[in-house]
Amino acid sequence: MKSITLMDMLVTKSFSNILKLKCELIKQKNTGMVFYKEDISKLPIDYPFEFYFYLTKGTILYQNAFPIPANHYKPWMRKNNNIQHLLPYFQSYYETESPFDSLYFESLSLFKGRKFVWFYKGGISDVS
């Protein structure tokens, strides 16, 4: 995906200040409607980060995260060799039919939101 900064989000004038923006992003992440790896409370205003929305990949160029509905998630999906269960969600989100490297699915981390669970590549980013 194209990286975005908090400043880019503020420019839209949907939020009057950075604190309100960060609070809303944290709230939305907890529902699973959006996903980002960074600790948003510590994120500098001009630091670029990957931002994902549950409904569409948007202008995403990378394929580092994808959601599944929380009511579809099963704890065994975290185990290795889960490609046959996760691939349909990945393909649906990224609108692709092409097979993907199975190693991608063996090293995914997990974030559980109330409505969506996100599988993502790599650990939480540290920008401190």
Automatic annotation (TrEMBL):
It comes from the Bacteria. This is Uncharacterized protein.
